[in-house]
């Protein structure tokens, strides 16, 4: 018995020793650097559960299996991230930057959404309000971030989904609780994905969960980052931002256009990739005349046509852009002796191209780009990436998969676009008397008023993933009617009679036929749009006001249709309206029933969302806020706010909408967690109203709402855009 007691005692002590928690070492503090992200120091802690404590509370980074092509892309993207956001002290404190280019560390460090959010803001400022990010967290660069959860397993996920969630770093941090839960990271990534849609990124089958588990989905995560870079450039590479593109287009097109207004319209109709290709081709032709051996070809040869950039092409464009920019800006060449004259610049570029060692050749090109101040472009070029691109494009062409080729063309577009952004040189006309010289490119009188609507509608069309649809200019890209027909058919499958459609319109008659069909389908029994005074010729002639009117009704119908499906889930399903759902139905059957079922009782209600439109959405929104305030009282009002003036909406033109407080109340009614009331102001000054609007948009996207309006649309009380905001938020009431 004594031996058994002694044995039991020793076993009990061994169990106690095994379950004893081991304190984690304190993190090293990086040197202080200026940052836009508030720094909060946190203590590391071990993860405990009812089963005992673990000796190591976290798991190491998962190993990511990458192909040589994927590793080349990850390496380039890691260098780009270090160049763009590598100096941010908040990201350094979290050990998110710098990123090691030689490994797959980048794919592990994007999982909490912070790095991707700063990437998006670097190219499209203020797209994401960083105050809406969950960021009170310390990262150890040697460990995996997913399992920083109390309890582990199912209990941890239940805790993360409850009240024990991460707050922004402006709030006091409780070091006895997990700092960034799985739920917090998922919210960040949802905000990133929805913000990416708002700048023109087509997600396809991409989801935020793919970014959370990037080690399982490396190709999707890499593709997403390239899409973000390309979308950021497309926002800037327009004739509005760079009027000199019109002169470049005029030189490339010759005497094709007799009228300057016609020339401007033709230049504005070019996509960013076409404008950039024309700009690059002009530089290659100029330096070829100066004696540099480049792959310029004869006539109008596309630089991006192969799907990748060769070293000769990149060297020629760099040399031409640097020479042209040095003539426009003399300060540019003060620290660059290679550009003292055209002859020296050609000799410098020739030396790079003539180098036989491929690795040394790309290194020389990168050093030259850095010396010229094009550091972002230098981070994106790599001999390994170009080699992988050539192989991938060749393999895809053999399989005749154009989709793969366009994906690699996007990478070349990103490289060439960053080169233009950092060295935007333009050559003057070679002709002594150019009839376009001296003429200024001016915006049309209605451009300023319609540009934000055009941008919002364009982003919406690109986001609905209609097959074969991606537009860069709403007015010119919809002139053939085919895009709008595809959008209508995407909204209500089967609504377009495709036997009557000219699928490859090449002349005015065929395009007009499609445009007339757009109007007929929109006015038909399926959509019943109000298009008084709108004809197919207005769409064909790119009438801005009437084209916006048509597309707005499409967007509004799509929003209301989705809200109707949400409404049906709550109150009972309505009669099907889509021809694809109920073949052979008459027009009288394409209306929703006026009765719904709830709780087993038949309850008559007023008009549905599709029938009631704005009034039904406003009523639904007011009832949502009233129900939340009735159950949980009023939200915690910041100083100077009177909720009695902000909790009810009559129309989308109400004055109190400018301060965004009604929108915050709606967001709080749907989910009380995401709104940090310490950030919200009374909105008495224009600056405070703009800050409130930016924060409200980011919080809505954090909830998963897909919205395309800008903060100015809220402060100026644009009723159309405000309706889309409220509708998108209400879609998450279930």
How would you characterize the overall build of this protein?
The protein is built from 30 helices and 4 strands. A hairpin with a 2-residue loop joins strand 1 and strand 2 (52-53). 52% of the residues lie in helices and 2% in strands. By secondary structure, it is mostly helical. The termini are far apart. It has helices at 2-19, 68-85, 89-93, 105-109, 114-123, 153-161, 182-198, 208-212, 218-236, 244-253, 260-268, 272-289, 311-328, 342-354, 358-371, 375-380, 383-399, 402-422, 447-463, 474-477, 482-491, 508-523, 536-540, 544-571, 609-612, 614-632, 661-670, 686-702, 711-715, 719-730; strands at 48-49, 52-53, 595-598, 601-604. The protein is globular and about 85 Å long. Helix 19 packs across helix 24 (544-571), helix 21 (482-491) runs parallel beside helix 22 (508-523) and helix 27 (661-670) packs parallel to helix 28. The model is unreliable at 24-35, 37-58, 137-178, 401-405, 442-446 and 574-606 (pLDDT under 50). The strands form 2 sheets. Strands 1-2 form a two-stranded antiparallel sheet. It has a two-stranded antiparallel sheet with strand order 3-4.
